[in-house]
Write a structure and sequence with these properties.
Length: about 400
């Protein structure tokens, strides 16, 4: 199992002798399925070359905050948003001090301030520097703010001392990075997720569908599995790999999707992220429709309503905790609140699909979650993976309170 499958990791490399282990760390992270982008401090470059880390990560290494060419390719804010995890290894005493003070005087420290992703440090320094009260005070402050520390370990050091301050080995760090994505928030719970578009056939070669890529639903399935849920993912036709530990059921039409969902009941929690076609052609022509000269340039398709999967499941006596999505191009919150009421939901996630940077098929999203009391909680623009983890944590809290 690749524990970091598709996880985006920004690896920050500080200026310490342990930087030589960072090369191996890039390999381990990638072996576990992660995508890695490396950011080096000035000091880091004195110990290991950017070329080495570029070759191992498969991407140019990010070096300077004020480099117009690098900013044009992937700027520091973009990189901060891209990350699912920022891992700094080695984290020197100086880096820890700068981070503790919120100083942003190079690319790496700026990025740490700008990211919403979890940040983890792998300290590496001489044992006396680690034991120094200033470093220990910085460690405490960083931990209080939610920054995780991996190690340090103890043993012999490059300077000849023996004691605490050795950077953990690459494989230990990769495993600790993977642990950051695991939590027991939904432990043991059966969870049903719908995702992707549906396809409604017109004839054997044509169909009606929509622009849904399924990315948000798949990201939610992955985050829910990482939270310990037993996940069934019922998906329309999409081109996405199945997340680890997720049971995937492929369907085509809205009616297939409803049947698959009903077969997967009962479950404790339902997240309906699918963009289900509201209508389908009343009859599916048995043969390919031909151009009909008697109807001129027009073609009349009689459509009928599809079942509402979410509303149907929310009306069952064994009703799960129901979370819907409202993808709208206008009056987002009003329409979402109406859907929450009409479909008898517990929560609705409102998604502005008019904005091309966060709409269908994009890599990022920004959403608002509305509850029955009409409280609105906003989740700012970030990768769909990041939004999915934040949403799963929020939904898990509300599920437990219900
Ligand atoms: O009514 P609308 O399609 O905008 O509602 C969106 C929500 O309802 C989404 O959660 C979607 O997955 C769900 N839905 C459904 N079955 C339908 C239509 C929508 O489950 N036929």
């Amino acid at each position: 199992m690749q524990r970091l499958y598709r996880k985006r990791i920004v690896l920050g490399v500080g200026g310490g002798i342990a930087a030589y282990k960072s090369a191996e760390l890039v390999r381990r992270l990638r072996d576990h399925g992660a995508e890695v982008r490396v950011v080096m401090t000035q000091g880091g470059r004195e110990f290991i070359t950017p070329l080495t880390l570029q070759a191992l990560s498969g991407h140019p290494v990010h070096l300077d905050l004020l480099d117009p060419a690098a900013e044009a390719a992937m700027g520091h804010i973009e990189l901060a948003r891209w990350a699912d995890l920022v891992l700094i290894a080695p984290a020197t005493a100086d880096l820890m001090a700068r981070l503790a003070q919120g100083i942003a005087n190079d690319l790496l420290t700026t990025l740490v301030l700008a990211t919403n992703a979890p940040v983890a440090l792998a300290p590496a320094m001489n044992q006396a520097m680690w034991a120094d009260p200033a470093t220990q005070a910085n460690r405490q402050l960083l931990e209080q703010r939610g920054i995780r520390l991996f190690g340090p370990g103890s043993g012999s050091q490059a300077c000849g001392d023996v004691g605490m301050g050795r950077m953990l080995e690459a494989e230990e760090l990769a495993q600790a990075a993977a642990d950051c994505f695991e939590n027991g928030r939904l432990s043991g719970l059966r969870l049903l997720i719908t995702a992707g578009p549906t396809q409604e056939n017109i004839d054997p070669v044509r169909y009606i569908t929509n622009h849904s890529s399924g990315k948000m639903g798949f990201a939610l399935a992955e985050a829910a599995a990482e939270a310990g849920a037993q996940v069934t993912l019922v998906t329309g036709p999409v081109f996405l790999p199945t997340p680890d530990r997720v049971q995937r059921i492929d369907v085509v039409s809205a009616r297939d999707m409803l049947a698959a969902c009903e077969a997967a009941m009962p479950c404790g929690l339902l997240i309906a992220a699918a963009a289900v076609a509201d209508y389908r052609p009343e009859v599916v022509a048995p043969h390919k429709l031909k151009k009909d000269p008697t109807t001129g340039d027009g073609l009349l398709l009689q459509m009928v309503r599809n079942p509402d999967i979410l509303a149907t499941l929310a009306a069952r006596p064994d009703r799960p905790f129901c979370v819907g999505f409202a993808a709208e191009t206008e009056n987002l919150l009003d329409y979402a609140m109406r859907k929450l009421r009409d479909k008898n939901l517990d929560l609705i996630v409102a998604n502005d699909v008019a904005n091309p940077s966060i709409g269908f098929n994009s890599e990022e999203n920004a959403v608002s979650v509305i509850d029955r009391q009409q409280h609105v909680t906003r989740f700012g623009q970030a990768s769909k993976g990041h939004i999915a983890r934040a949403l799963v944590a929020f939904i898990a809290d509300r599920y437990r309170q219900a």
